[in-house]
Amino acid sequence: MSNRPALPPEIARRRTFAIISHPDAGKTTLTEKFLLFGGAIQMAGQVRAKGEARRTRSDFMKLEQDRGISVSASAMSFEYRDFRYNLVDTPGHSDFSEDTYRTLTAVDAAIMVIDGAKGVESQTRKLFEVCRLRDLPILTFCNKMDRESRDTFEIIDEIQENLAIDVAPASWPIGMGREFLGCYDMLHDRLELMDRADRNKVAESIKISGLDDPKLAEHVPADMLEKLREEVEMARELLPAFDRQSFLEGHLTPIWFGSAINSFGVKELMDGIGEFGPEPEVFKTAERDVAPEEKKVSGFVFKVQANMDPKHRDRVAFVRLVSGHFTRGQKLFHVRSKKPMAVSNPVLFLAADRELAEEAWGGDIIGIPNHGQLRIGDALTEGESLRFTGIPSFAPELLQSVRATDPMKGKHLEKALMQFAEEGAAKVFKPAIGSGFIVGVVGALQFDVLASRIELEYGIPVRFETSQFTSARWVQGDKAAVEKLLNANKQHISYDHDGDVVFLTRLQWDIDRVERDYEGVTLSATKEMM
Ligand code: G4P
Question: Which CATH class is domain 284-381?
Fold first, then answer.
């Protein structure tokens, strides 16, 4: 990374990241404060209407409101100081891990939010593991320090042991719970004091010269000051110091302590991403590595979302720009169809409002409204045939058959299902024998979401029913071998929305049998989306 040439300033100032956390740790609140400081919203509380609906403004579905979960990932851009931040929201619920996984392929860093009283929770751990697969740099925010929290060393130890990553304190909390005063900024030798009276105010920041500075005593009571000095001394002895290279390689995470609801620690965290990076990264394709500073535009679709705006029946493809300088109206090459595509109305996601993007740079996330041409994994370039790798499609873990309660609507149902399949919201398999469809998902809640969306967006009431199958595997291999398998196992064969052959079964034994009996055929639980 350090050997790379300097990036054009516009690209070097991009910071594209996601927030990972266990539900309730404070992701929504932190997002809200980011947007508040980034000037994307005027008042806190706009992102999440207090009490009645605990959601970010980017959520739009009734079902999400009812369940209080965020089903769909979305992107938000904002400016703060010298940087342009692109925050890609990840759905927090474990049922949507596939979507989350793909979202994490489009960012350069992640912020891990943990609750100071609860430490590392199950969902945090899962998401962390996904980040680790890509060695994503991780910044940690220990939230809710205004409440009774665990001992600071204990929290840090838990992260180190549970996640096997070095933790370097970027700040050190002074008191906790009702006594929480603020933090000592260990990287900049500053005192940050929390204002309890105004939850939206940025903390008062006092420059000091070391922990022996007499100024400290004016702000921190003697007993707390003594404890702070002791703890910081111990921390410096026992814990690793912040090392940028190690952070960028994903081996070390800096930790800030704060209280999102009180806007405390948020600014320091934003400055941290700004100051330490990472800058937009190099991405891999099947052909070669693509660097952000390359003159030509390239990018890939990591998410497709339909009907974001109920008034416009469009789909938006979320594209991570990997390189170049894109301008509105530019003709790009759609690699999968080998056709040019004029991108005349790209959108940037400034909090809730969609705004036309006049230009965008490597690192940015743009939305491209389209009628279904753009699918997850698709590459856009200025003519080169590139295929970005590492955007997987997972075999669903749950299968159900679906039918319209009104049989006359069968044809429309097919259209709706295909759309959701292309969006990546579910896998849809058309069995080779018989009629109807089998829908596959990763988490059970997705069936409810689908049923609700099919009814809401297409006016088709549907029923999901138990299917005779429980596993799906993509069939790969040489043509003759696959043909032989198809002919002898018709009752197990289906086709996904791309027309690829999928083997359905309820027995692991069947999968083993095929792999044993059909040389040259493999059954795969993932399929690269390219
Ligand atoms: P999530 O998106 O990660 O699920 O968490 P969210 O921000 O919705 O926060 C979960 C709860 O924690 C909310 O309380 C929120 O107000 C509270 N919270 C967030 N940050 C802090 C903090 O720094 N200190 C304290 N004490 N609480 C915090 P809630 O009661 O569930 O909702 P609400 O009624 O407050 O909106």
Answer: alpha beta
